[in-house]
Specification:
12-stranded mixed β-sheet; alpha/beta; about 45% helix; D-Maltodextrin-Binding Protein, domain 2; 3 domains; single chain
């Protein structure tokens, strides 16, 4: 009898020890993150959104956020260069090319982590293996200046950009810079072949980098159409300056659905701050920031204002396996045909 009582006491002590150890671990992560005092974030999210999120995190936890912001291609190139040099400087990375996250996962470069609140995300937004989360999504659409494009001339199909009437009046980004353009280019090649770009080249589109820069040129009336265009760049303007001459056309073939995953790199400089930052990025308050900035958040029940619901649109889902196998070809052949910058 005495032995049974002692065993029960031991079991109870162990249970309480484990309970307090687990409880302390949660608090310890936050405290450890605060001691690290910094997190490094590489992202293709637009600068204003990224900076706003960084400021919110610093205000809440007192931890500095160092942001490196460029297009998806630039984010990937920087990390691959760091990998070749043998030292990765990033903690949390986010961009618009899920195929690269799958490649990094296969190369055992990512730190598996399930952020707090991940159960509230759409299933499509969560890597089943726990290495990345699609914080927000984007759509590739066609944008035009309604002051310059008559109603009957509004492009209604991706193929409409091939019409000779648009010669010298088109804008687009490069698949080597913008992940969304890379996804779109892959869909076009699979659907229409490389002849699409040979015909498009005859219209001599201006090929820039940042979609925000292209947006400025369109609104200024220097060009008529951007194809393809990130939907959030259009609606960010509509929210702030509704009188601006920019509008959206949803191509009859469908709009490209482009996920924006984020994950933590293994052996990152500030691992505890990285996990805390991922928790923060998945929180309702940050997901609402993405919605306010015209992104489609990964979290359920958080919707952007005045934008079409995804269920009401014809969505084209990129063939990520095909893109992963043809990524370099897409960039190089596009540049060869189009003279990409």
């Amino acid at each position: 009898m005495r032995t049974k009582i002692i065993l029960r006491m031991v079991v109870c002590c162990l249970a309480f020890t484990l309970l307090f150890a687990f409880t302390g671990a949660i608090a310890a992560d936050i405290e450890a993150a605060k001691r690290e005092g910094k997190v490094i974030f590489y992202t293709s999210t637009d600068s204003k959104t990224a900076e706003r999120i960084g400021d919110m995190f610093t205000e809440k936890y007192g931890i500095d956020v160092e942001i490196y912001r460029t297009g998806t291609g630039g984010v990937i190139s920087k990390i691959e260069m760091e990998l070749r040099a043998g030292k990765v400087a990033v903690d949390v990375v986010q961009h618009s090319d899920p195929t690269t996250f799958e490649d990094w996962k296969a190369r055992n470069l990512l730190h598996g982590y399930s952020p707090e609140g991940i159960d509230k995300f759409h299933e499509f937004a969560v890597d089943p293996d726990g290495y990345w989360v699609a914080l927000r999504s984007n759509l590739s659409v066609i944008a035009y200046n309604p002051n310059l494009v008559a109603k009957e001339d509004i492009p209604r199909s991706w193929r409409d950009a091939l019409d000779p009437k648009w010669k010298g009046r088109l804008l687009m980004s490069s698949p080597g810079y913008a992940g969304s353009t890379r996804m779109w280019a892959a869909e076009v090649v699979k659907r229409y072949g490389w002849d699409y770009f040979r015909q498009l080249a005859k219209n001599k589109p201006y090929i820039g980098k940042s979609h925000s820069g292209l947006r400025t040129l369109l609104i200024a009336g220097e060009y008529d159409v951007i194809s393809p265009m990130n939907i959030y760049h259009v609606f960010q303007t509509v929210y702030k300056e509704p009188e601006s001459p920019i509008a959206v056309s949803y191509p009859e073939e469908g709009v490209l659905f482009i996920a924006g995953p984020a994950g933590i790199f293994k052996n990152s400089p500030y691992p505890n701050a990285a996990e805390l930052f991922m928790d923060f990025l998945c929180s309702e308050e940050v997901q609402k920031v993405f919605a306010d900035r015209a992104y489609y958040p990964g979290r359920k029940g958080v919707l952007p204002l005045a934008m079409p619901r995804l269920v009401d649109l014809k969505l084209l889902i990129p063939d990520y396996e095909w893109i992963g196998a043809h990524k370099q070809e897409l960039i190089e052949k596009f540049d060869e045909i189009m003279g990409g910058k």
